[in-house]
Design a protein that fits this description.
The protein has five helices and 19 strands. By secondary structure, it is an alpha+beta fold. The protein is globular, with a radius of gyration of 22 Å.
Length: about 300
Amino acid sequence: MKRLLLIAALLLLAPVALAATDAAGWLARVGPALRGLDYQGTLVVVAGGRVDTLRVFHRVDDGRERERLVALSGPAREVIRDGSRVMCIGTGVAPVAYDMGQAGRWSEALAISEAAGLDGYQARLGQPGRVAGHAVQRIEVLATDPWRYGYRLWLEKRSGLPLRVDLLDGQGRSIEQVAFTDIRLDQAPADADLMPSAPAELERVSPLPPHTGSQVGWTVPAPPAGFRLRATRPLPDGGVHLLYSDGLASVSVYVERVGGGLRGDARRQRGAVHARSFWLDGWQVLAIGKVPAATVDRFARTVRAVTASG
């Protein structure tokens, strides 16, 4: 009887284990696809009640990535990336070059591809389908607690390239969508398609320095599970910018001096991005991130000055 029960248990558990392994395997293909493929297409972003359309060009020359995203709706703007150099061009202002990390890519898919091994997320295999005329496999990366959003990805079956990414709330509803409406794979863009429309040179500006463990004057003693301090930047008059992340979602906490006597608080939301701020005793605390409202509220409420005794 014990042997029969053991066999039954293994049969019941096997599909779950295989599905989880398969989902992780699919996600592992995303990074090489995003970094290594030539492609061009039209991307639609639906977020915060707005619909934006972009043209995407991506080419790899002997390991050197070149990419250009051009807005086809709204104000004229574009992002150009050449290796580690990035430029953002907007309307009516001089071109601005800055380090965007992974933000130069068309979505957060590269970071999402690593979420299967992160605390707070669980990856599972979904149903096959079609996006922009291509056969795809759906993968769900679900949040296991209310502190972060989940994701749903549609990966092109042959390459693993994400053709659609949805951001999900706690009930599994889509609150942001990024999807190709047409895409040509393995078709390298021409040099002209990758060139910025402005004559300025692409530049690299240093990102936030990583946190070294030294005291920075302010801290969040008990951030939500999975979030840890990744980078810090001092601000004038004893203020600081703290960047917390779980490896996928991130929250910036700003502590700055303000005029004495100010007291109060405020909440703001733009699409999936929430912000929470407080004014008290000559200081302003602002927490902002693409996370649920409760997450930024916890960061803003619990930030504390580091005392001399630690």
